[in-house]
Amino acid sequence: MSLTRTIQIGICGFGTVGQGVWKHLERARPELEARLGAKLVLARAAVRDLRKKRDVKIPAAKLTADPLAIATDPKIDIVCELMGGTGLARQVTLAALSAGKIVVSANKALICAHGAEIFATARKHGGHFFFEASVAGGIPLIKALREGLVANRFPLIYGILNGTCNYILTQMEERNAPYAEVLAAAKSLGYAEADESLDVDGWDTAHKASVLTWLAHGLWVKTDRMLVEGISRITPADFKNAATLGYGIKLLAVITRDFAANELSVRIQPTLLPEGNVLANVNGVFNAISVTGDVVGTTLYIGRGAGQDATASAVISDIADAVALLSHGKGAHHMGDVVPAAGTSPRLAPPERIRGRYYVRLSVKDQPGVLARVASVMARHHVSIASVIQNPAEQDGAASLVLTTHESDERAIRATLKNLARLPSVLEPPVLLRIGDFGN
Ligand code: NAP
Ligand code: HSE
User: Does residue 164's CB lie within 6 angstroms of at least one atom of ligand 2?
Assistant: First the structure.
């Protein structure tokens, strides 16, 4: 087969993901070229430190410390932004799009912060922005939402979107492993962000939820409009308590839309999931997302959510789309941007409209009357107790109280927690987990 066109690819960022893309693209090149009818050239890569030793070797002449030079190089057709961050990454992305190039990105933080500007720039200059690797690693979730499920509206999307957190939670649950040790392992496996607090404090999940919310509902929701909680206060005792109650613990993104009220909510929360829920059994670096569409019903997606190979797989799928678009004028971009019909853009639901059941763990003085005082605070806020477990705490004279509640709402539970924390018999800030009643 004759290759009609040569496509030059530049890679900005040659770390975990960038090297994976280079390695796997080199290996898959003959098959991809035959399928796409174009010659693919890995032309240049940009790094911060030209002297750093790397597992994937490339000719020194192809390396630069200036990513903007790749973004503006007239010979380069496709720019992969695989550096991370929202400063230089934004400049590189906008420069390449302004030059009419296709940008492929794995950078969910950037999309969450500057998505509207990025897509507007692409539209204005005839560039294109592809971002399959930005959510759920190797799972083709963006394509599923954008193409496969295009007939649907989405009342509920929830899932495990951060591989690092799922890896940490799994190791804590299965091996009782110390948090710091497991986090260090997640970093060395290439799962964690350069700033790991993005993972463990829930922000990376929030960035991904923002991308999914835009795809599903056509609305950019920034992280300051979401409820975002991380996993750093979860202890092995929480796993034991959850198991006693018949649950596992997962960090979930939950995106709900009430079409009748035209309200949307986006929450990132460690959640007790019933042991029978498929997602409760998705472990390690794997992600899993349940997407309920009003036409299709519930669909489930499971796969590796982080790491070099899974992420490279997603980036290369975008590169293939970009090559098809450049060579033949076809590809995923034909689905267009998500635009809600006039007047249907949803409002964010206020806390009193977000209902659920809760798990509250309190470290309290082991004294008469403490449980009664805790129950009284909950009753004052109309939060009804469903069950109580009392365990000895690590400190002398202290006990761990675990309460689950009947259905309440976010406003009531937050007020309850605030007042519980003020009780002299409560020794530490309470730990709050949601109970996930998703019905599947
Ligand atoms: P990484 O290993 O830290 O690699 C970042 C690369 O960017 C490095 O090669 C670094 O150069 C280069 N870089 C950073 N700042 C630069 C600058 N100012 N000028 C030139 N080069 C610069 O990160 P990663 O894990 O590959 O992640 C890259 C992106 O993919 C991030 O947006 C991340 O959120 C996203 N992502 C990662 C994964 C994953 O599993 N790791 C999965 C999905 C998405 P040096 O090597 O010289 O330091
Ligand atoms: N740090 C991210 C995670 C990388 O652990 O999920 C994949 O987006």
Answer: yes
Strands 286-293 and 355-365: unpaired
In sequence order, what are the residues at sequence separation of 6 or more whose Cβ sits closer than 8 angstroms to the Cβ of residue 110? 81, 85, 86, 89, 90, 93, 118
**Euclidean distance between CA atoms 51 and 322, whole angstroms:** 31
Q: Do 300 and 312 share a domain, yes or no?
A: no
52 ligand 1 Cβ < 6 A: yes
For residue range 79-96, what is the model confidence (pLDDT) as tens digits? 999 999 999 999 999 999
Domain co-membership, 43 together with 83:
yes
Q: Counting Cβ atoms within 10 Å, is residue 353 exposed (0-12), middle (13-18) or buried (19+)?
A: middle
**Exactly one of 52, 208, 250, 418 is catalytic; which is it?**
208
Q: Identify whether the C-beta of residue 232 lies closer than 8 Å to the C-beta of residue 243.
A: no
27 and 147, same domain (yes or no)? no
| pLDDT in the model for residue 121 | 97
Please determine, for residue 279, whether its predicted confidence score (pLDDT) is greater than 90: yes
Active site (annotated) includes residue 208 = yes
